[in-house]
Amino acid sequence: MIQIKRLYAPRDVTDGRRVLVDGLWPRGIKKEALDLDDWIKEIAPSPELRKWYGHQPELWEEFAKRYRAELKMPVRAAQLDRLRDLSESGTVTLLYAARDEIRNNAVVLHELLRQG
Question: pTM to 2 decimals?
Fold first, then answer.
C-alpha cells in the first residue's frame, strides 16, 4: 500500500515506511528531528521543473505531465521501481513538504505507483 502525507504531520502507526520524496531538505527541520526511514531525493522533480512550476495551480497539469516524463529517465525510473518494491513488502508513506496537499510531486508518484 502506498499513501502520501505532509512531512510535518506526526508519525502514525499506519504509516509503515516513511520516505521523503523531495529533492531539497525541508526548511527549519533538523535531520534528527524528522521521523523518516528514507530520503529518495533522486526521484524528485528536476530543479528546473520545480522552479518553473513554483506551485502555481494553473501550471499543475503541465507540471504533472513533465514530471511523469522525467520519471522515465533511468535514475528516476530506478527509484520508482525501488518504491514499488518497498510497497510490496508493506505500507509506504510518501512524505512531501509542499503546502498544497492536492498538487505536489508525491501526488504524481502516488498515482503512478497505484497504476502499477
Answer: 0.93
